[in-house]
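Reminder to self: C-alpha cells first, then the designed residues, so the page reads top to bottom the way the pipeline ran.
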C-alpha cells in the first residue's frame, strides 16, 4: 500500500477528511472515558522542529504516548537537516529508523522534498504556506459545537497567511464558504484566490467578513520570521482586530477561534478569549485529538 502524506488538506479526499474528524471526536470521548487504547506500541514518531511551538510539540508527543508509542524531538541543533546534509538524505535516513514524521519548518518545499524521499508518512506541522493540522482542530471544534460544516460561512480576518491558505483548502474540500478580510498588501496569493473563487471571497473590511458569519478566526499580526515588520503590521492591521463588537455582527450562534498564541490588545481585544462565543481552549485541545486521528489514519489505513 502506497505511503500517504499530509502536507495540505488536499492530500485527503473530502470523505477521508470527514472520517478523520469524526474519528477525532471518538478518540476524544475514549480518552475522557478513561479507555486505554494503544495501537502504536513500538512505533516511533520523529518530530522535526525548525520553528518552535508549544501546542504542536505537546499535542503530537502526548498523542503518541497515549497511543502507546514514543516520540523523538529534533530541533535544528539536533540534526543536519538542510545544514550539513541535503533534506533528501536526511529523509532517507530518518524514515528508515522511525514510523512516521512530523515537520514544522519554514519553506514549504522543504517538507515536499522530505516527503518525496521518505519511506513513512510525513505530516506538515506548519510551513510558511500551510497549517493543515490546525485547521483539522478548528473544524473538529466547529462540528462539536455546531454540527455540519456544509453551507456555513466562515470568516478569516487578518493576515492572508498559512492559516488562511489552509482555510481556503478546507472550504473547497468540505463545502463551506470563506470570507477573507486582509489589509492591502497582505492578501493571500491571487492565484490561489482565483483557483478557489467558488468557495473563498476577498472582502474589504473586517465588518464585511464578519456579518452573518458562523465562525470568525484570526491569527497574530506578526508571525515568527516577520519581527522586522512588526511596527508596520500593527499600523496596517489596526482596523482588523476581532472584538465583541465585531462578533456582534456575526450570526447569533457564531464561534470565535484563534490558533494561539494570542496577542491581547492587538489582533484580539483584551477580553475576546473570555467571551462566551470563544471556543479557543477547546480548539487548542483538539490539536491532540485531531492529530491522533490523523496519525492513526496514515499509519494503519483502517479508515481508507
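Designed residues (304 positions):
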Amino acid at each position: 500500500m502506497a505511503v500517504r502524506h499530509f502536507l495540505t488538506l488536499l492530500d485527503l479526499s473530502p470523505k477521508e477528511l470527514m472520517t478523520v474528524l469524526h474519528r477525532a471526536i471518538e478518540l476524544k470521548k475514549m480518552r475522557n472515558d478513561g479507555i486505554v487504547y494503544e495501537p502504536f506500541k513500538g512505533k516511533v514518531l520523529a518530530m522535526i522542529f525548525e520553528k518552535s511551538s508549544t501546542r504542536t510539540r505537546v499535542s503530537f508527543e502526548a498523542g503518541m504516548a497515549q497511543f502507546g508509542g514514543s516520540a523523538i524531538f529534533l530541533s535544528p541543533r539536533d540534526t543536519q537537516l538542510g545544514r550539513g546534509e541535503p533534506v533528501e538524505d536526511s529523509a532517507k535516513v530518518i524514515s528508515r529508523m522511525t514510523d512516521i514524521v512530523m515537520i514544522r519548518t519554514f519553506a514549504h518545499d522543504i517538507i515536499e522534498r522530505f516527503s518525496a524521499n521518505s519511506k513513512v508518512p510525513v505530516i506538515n506541522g506548519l510551513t510558511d504556506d500551510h497549517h493543515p493540522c490546525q485547521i483539522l482542530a478548528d473544524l473538529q471544534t466547529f462540528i462539536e459545537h455546531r454540527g455540519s460544516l456544509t453551507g456555513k460561512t466562515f470568516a478569516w480576518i487578518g493576515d492572508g497567511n498559512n492559516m488562511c491558505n489552509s482555510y481556503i483548502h478546507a472550504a473547497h474540500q468540505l463545502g463551506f464558504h470563506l470570507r477573507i478580510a486582509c489589509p492591502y498588501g497582505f492578501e493571500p496569493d491571487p492565484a490561489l484566490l482565483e483557483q478557489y473563487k467558488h468557495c473563498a471571497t476577498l472582502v474589504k473590511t473586517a465588518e464585511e467578513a464578519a456579518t452573518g458569519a458562523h465562525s470568525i478566526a484570526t491569527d497574530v499580526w506578526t508571525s515568527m520570521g516577520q519581527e522586522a515588520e512588526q511596527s508596520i503590521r500593527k499600523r496596517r492591521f489596526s482596523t482588523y482586530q476581532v472584538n465583541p463588537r465585531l462578533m456582534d455582527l456575526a450570526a447569533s450562534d457564531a464561534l470565535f477561534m484563534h490558533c494561539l498564541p494570542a496577542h491581547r490588545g492587538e489582533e484580539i481585544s483584551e477580553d475576546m478569549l473570555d467571551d462566551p462565543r470563544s471556543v479557543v481552549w477547546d480548539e487548542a485541545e483538539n490539536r491532540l485529538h485531531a492529530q491522533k486521528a490523523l496519525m492513526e489514519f496514515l499509519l494503519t489505513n483502517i479508515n481508507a
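The chain is about 40% helix and 15% strand.
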